[in-house]
Every structure is written in structure tokens, then in C-alpha cells.
């Protein structure tokens, strides 16, 4: 069931003029949360509105916004304490913020001193990781992506593994290297096995790739030993971010059998700084694609749990005058929704915690221009991608900057995610490992 109220109305406008621009990522219907800092001040929670952000810690201190009496919930460097208050508080706070920013409300609009203090230009703010990532799980939920990869490495007639149409495939990743957009990514070192060699070698990754994903953030926990339904899982999700699960394809090819990716994915995962709430995306719910084989009852959906989200990827080289669009796709193609992924994660009795991050897996569409990784676009390096300036890429080179963007198209407005970007730095200087002798390196 879709839950809409006045905060979703396309007729609602804000007294923050930039929020009313048709192509603004952050109209009054969006109101995403992030963590920011300004010169001389500590990180705290804000909400994006147009080309500004609203300092919720300041409004909380002034008594204009109250979520939990007597506690400074927004004067924190992560959203976890706010998420812990639960869905009723999330909804009440969204409604209070929407009303406060609505064009006819004089409370903040006409208080010049408080308005100037609390409304911060985005250009003067530094964004931080919005949540404390309790744990990170990455899924493999796009049928198009799984098929494309299967064709590359297996018999095309058996591109999908036998379990893929029955179960959301996933693996536990590294929360410690989840970073906010704008963080540079160091090319990883690892074991590589050239096809002409009988043994692996050690060195920098030569097939560095990106993965276009959507990240779901758990805001409601479940106790260990207690599974949840798909409907309950949908309501457990606080919001969503763009996610780039950087991948070292050559390291992965050598290490992934029999247990799957390890170091090939552990070195970095980037997320966008703004958390788009589940509530903001309610008008854009769509059903998952038709099932080729029936799912077991615990995975069956009774409501539309996917979203119609436009996604775009650009690649900028260090010498290019502008970035080139290399992919346009949509999240609606995902075979398994985030709610199904979360329900499957918990069905064994796994305790899901506030701040858990679930990566959707690479999002690819049905056409060649809608692929979510260079591995697919270039057929594992065999067919280079040509950029707008004539440069070509099979995989990412040092100095390249990859940017993800996304939005849901509303009536006269859009619910935007902002961007998720990262530039590639050279690999660290290799040590002479032969010189390391025993404990302590002596």
C-alpha cells in the first residue's frame, strides 16, 4: 500500500525559492537528511532544501524542532540516533519540516535572524558520511547484470546459476571502507593471475571498475532469531543512497572461487551524502519484474516495493574538458527489491541493526547503453568504451572520476539523490615484502 499525505503534494511550494526550480534535486517534497560541517563548527544533521541545507541541530536548540524532549538528537555526527526513534517520529519530523518550509508559513520565513543562521548554503558546507555503518551487505539482484556476467564467464545457455531465480544472492562486505562521495579511491594492490601464468603475481589492480547500485539503510532492527516478512522489511528501511561498490575485477577473478569476492571489493564503497527517505519515494513505487519461477512464500510481495528511479553514470578523465555519460538506466529493472533482500537476510534469524547498509548489486537495464559496470560495457575489456573527447576505456585509469546521479521524476519536480563521486588515485608504493622478517618487521 502506498502512503501519501500533504508532504507529497506537487502543489506544495517552499519559501526557499531555489527549491521550486523544476530540476532541483531537493524540492520541499524530498527533504533528505545528511551530516555536514561548516568552518569552526562540529558535524551535525541537516536537511537539503534547494541549494541550501537547514541546520536541524540549531533549530532543535532553538526549540523550533523537537524529536525527543531533552535530547539533542541532531547535534550528532550521524543519523543513527534519529533513526533509532522509529517510523512514527520519522513521519512526524518530515511533516514538521515540510510545514516549516512551506511558502505560507511565517515561523522561520519571517524570523530573519533564525532563518539566516539555520539556512546554510550548500557551497559552504562540507558533507560527511551520513550514518555509522553498522555492517554492509552487497547483493547481486539485477537479472540483466547477472546474465551479462554469466555470459562472459560461463556457457551463455547457463548464464544464471541454478539458484538465482529463487534467492537474492549476497555476501557480507566491509563497513570500515564505506566512504562519503568526494573521497578519493586508492587503486588496490593484490594477487593477480595472468592467463598465461601458472602462478599468481602481486601488484596493482589492472581492471579497476565501478558498480552502479542503490544502498538501503536499515532504520528499524529485528531481534536475533526473529525473521521478518517482506512487508515488515519494507517498513524497516529508513532511506536510500546512491552506492558505488568499486571492484578490482582481476583480483576478483583469482580469489572469488569458491566463496565469492573478498579483497576485490573490500578496499572501497562510496555512498552519496544525502539519505533520501523511504517516505519521499512513496509516490514512485513500482512492482518488481514478472517472476520466471515462483518464489517461496517468505519472498513473495503483496505490494509494489521497487522504485522508478532514473540513474546516470558519467566518467571524466583528468584531461577531458567535461564528463561523458556512459550509462543511463533505471532501478525499476531490479529483479529483487530491497525489501526482499532484507527479508531474506533476516529469515535465518540474522539480527539486522540500525545503520546496516544493503547494496542492491549492480543495476543494469536491458539495453547496451543501460549497463552498470565497465565489465559489462566492454565485455571484460574486449570492446573499449569511447568517451566524448575520443579517449577510450576498458577499465578505470588513474585520474579518472566516476559520478553517479539519480532522481525520481514527479509532477513539476523531482526527488533527487545528488551525486556519488570518486576519483582514482595511483596504487600505494609497493613495499619490499622480502625485507619483512618475522614479527615487528625485524
In words, what does this structure look like?
The chain is an alpha+beta fold and 442 residues long. The protein has two domains: 6-128, SH3 type barrels (Roll); 136-425, Fumarylacetoacetate hydrolase, domain 2 (Alpha-Beta Complex), CATH 3.90.850. It is built from eleven helices and 26 strands. The protein starts with 32 loop residues before the first strand and ends in a 17-residue tail after the last strand. 45% of the residues are buried.
For the largest beta-sheet, the strand count, sense and barrel status come to:
8 strands, mixed
Low-confidence stretches: none
By DSSP (H or I, 4+ residues per run), the number of helices equals 11
Shape: globular
- Assembly context of the chains: single chain
Name given to the CATH architecture of the largest domain: Alpha-Beta Complex
CATH class of the largest domain reads Alpha Beta
- Nearest-integer average pLDDT: 95
* Protein structure class: alpha+beta
Helical amount among residues, as a percent range? 10-25%
Number of domains: 2
Strand content: 25-35%
Number of strands: 26
Which key features would you list for this structure?
442 residues, alpha+beta, SH3 type barrels, Fumarylacetoacetate hydrolase, domain 2, 2 domains, eight-stranded mixed sheet, 11 helices, 26 strands, 18% helix, globular
Amino acid at each position: 500500500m502506498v502512503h501519501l499525505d500533504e508532504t507529497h503534494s506537487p502543489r506544495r511550494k517552499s519559501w526557499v525559492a531555489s527549491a521550486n526550480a523544476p530540476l532541483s534535486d531537493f524540492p520541499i517534497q524530498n527533504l533528505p537528511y545528511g551530516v555536514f560541517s561548516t568552518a569552526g563548527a562540529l558535524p551535525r544533521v541537516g536537511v537539503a532544501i534547494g541549494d541550501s541545507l537547514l541546520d536541524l541541530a540549531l533549530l532543535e536548540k532553538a526549540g523550533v524542532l523537537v524529536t525527543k524532549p531533552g535530547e539533542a538528537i541532531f547535534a550528532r555526527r550521524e543519523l543513527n540516533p534519529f533513526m533509532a526513534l522509529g517510523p512514527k517520529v520519522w513521519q512526524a519530523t518530515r511533516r514538521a519540516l515540510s510545514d516549516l518550509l512551506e511558502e505560507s508559513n511565517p515561523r522561520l520565513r519571517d524570523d530573519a535572524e533564525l532563518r539566516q543562521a539555520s539556512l546554510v548554503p550548500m557551497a559552504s558546507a562540507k558533507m560527511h558520511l551520513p550514518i555509522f555503518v553498522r555492517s554492509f551487505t552487497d547483493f547481486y539482484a539485477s537479472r540483466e547484470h547477472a546474465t551479462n556476467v554469466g555470459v562472459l564467464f560461463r556457457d551463455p545457455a547457463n548464464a544464471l546459476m541454478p539458484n538465482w531465480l529463487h534467492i537474492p544472492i549476497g555476501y557480507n562486505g566491509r563497513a570500515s571502507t564505506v566512504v562519503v562521495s568526494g573521497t578519493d579511491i586508492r587503486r588496490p594492490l593484490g594477487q593477480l593471475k595472468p592467463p598465461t601464468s601458472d602462478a599468481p603475481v602481486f601488484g596493482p589492480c589492472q581492471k579497476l571498475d565501478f558498480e552502479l547500485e542503490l544502498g538501503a539503510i536499515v532504520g528499524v532492527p529485528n531481534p536475533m532469531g526473529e525473521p521478518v516478512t517482506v512487508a515488515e522489511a519494507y517498513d524497516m528501511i529508513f532511506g536510500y543512497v546512491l552506492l558505488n561498490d568499486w571492484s578490482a575485477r582481476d583480483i576478483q577473478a583469482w580469489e572469488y572461487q569458491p566463496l565469492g569476492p573478498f579483497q576485490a571489493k573490500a578496499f572501497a564503497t562510496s555512498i552519496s551524502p544525502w539519505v533520501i527517505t523511504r517516505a519521499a519515494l512513496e509516490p514512485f513505487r513500482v512492482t518488481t519484474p514478472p517472476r520466471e519461477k515462483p518464489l517461496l512464500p517468505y519472498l513473495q510481495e503483496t505490494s509494489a516495493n521497487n522504485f522508478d528511479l532514473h540513474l546516470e553514470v558519467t566518467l571524466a578523465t583528468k584531461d577531458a574538458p567535461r564528463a561523458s555519460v556512459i550509462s543511463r538506466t533505471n532501478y525499476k529493472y531490479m529483479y529483487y527489491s530491497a525489501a526482499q533482500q532484507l527479508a531474506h537476510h533476516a529469515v535465518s534469524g540474522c539480527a539486522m541493526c540500525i545503520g546496516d547498509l544493503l547494496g542492491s548489486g549492480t543495476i543494469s537495464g536491458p539495453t547496451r547503453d543501460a549497463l552498470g559496470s565497465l565489465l559489462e560495457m566492454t565485455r571484460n575489456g574486449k570492446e573499449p568504451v569511447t568517451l566524448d573527447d575520443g579517449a577510450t576505456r576498458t577499465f578505470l585509469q588513474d585520474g579518472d572520476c566516476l559520478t553517479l546521479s539519480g532522481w525520481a521524476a514527479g509532477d513539476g519536480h523531482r526527488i533527487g539523490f545528488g551525486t556519488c563521486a570518486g576519483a582514482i588515485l595511483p596504487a600505494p608504493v609497493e613495499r619490499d615484502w622480502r625485507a619483512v622478517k618475522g614479527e615487528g618487521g625485524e
